Amino acid sequence: MAAKVTKTNDDAIAQRRQVGAAMRSYRKEAGMDREVTAAVIGLAGPTLTRKESGDVQFSRAQIEKLAEAYGVPDNEVAMLIELAREGRARTRSRSGEFPMFVPLKDRAFLELEQRDAIEIMTVTLLVIPVYFQTEAYMRTLWKRNGELTSEQRINELVRLRKTRQRVVTKPAAPKIRAVVHEAALRLPVGGPEVMREQLSALARACELPNVEIQVQATEAGAFPGIETTFTLLRFGDGAAKDVAQVAGYDEPFYRDREPGTQVYRDAWDRRRVAALDLQESKDRILEAAADFGLSRA
């Protein structure tokens, strides 16, 4: 019975954390400071901070009142309330960073990534991990994705991705660990000039103290989780609170409780062990860059 209670509480914390992260993101986007916002719902600033951190849950009335102050669309308010309701059920048993076109679950994930994660683990197959992509590389990906994405939309996506990349070098940055398949190093996205710049940037990222990049070598053939790409956020309060973002065809889906997240922890371990070590990986990145015409001297 005790194990069930602990599991239930873990699920509730995961849900509260996502609601709080989304609410914090909306507040920042609205340009409202903590004290002003807390006064809207009759709280002290530290209490609002605890709610935005997921330590204390938001009530439905508080969500509705703050959402009105922030200008949150009705459909996203409904999703917030549903997410908060799920958290309550389980318990009983910088300004403008993430724009309004980002769906609720994505918004919560991005806020947690920027503010709360102590470790980020990501696996990619055919593309360079988002944390290390150059602007020219990412623009090529969106222009050539077959969806006829408008220039305005691409500009929005570039700004958003650059915001995400701040996590790599921010003060007290989390550990960022990536496993990328060698195919991503060899695929000529944007042509030789774009790839030289991209691979050079990736090699420099290998030198950052909080970054570990491993390459899955082509000659190794098949490997564990060959069809899966994902990003796993880890926090300071145990594996049961992890959040996984898993790549889908049109949009990602999320796993925010065990045993769903355990699958990705296991997948990460298998991929890491099967990949080249850190120095071999950097050498392979520089080798690929040289093949696109970058001198290794």
UniProtKB/TrEMBL annotation:
Residues 23-77 form the HTH cro/C1-type domain. Gene3D superfamilies: lambda repressor-like DNA-binding domains. One of its GO terms (molecular function) is DNA binding. Pfam families: DUF5753 (PF19054), HTH_31 (PF13560). This is Helix-turn-helix protein. It comes from Saccharothrix texasensis.
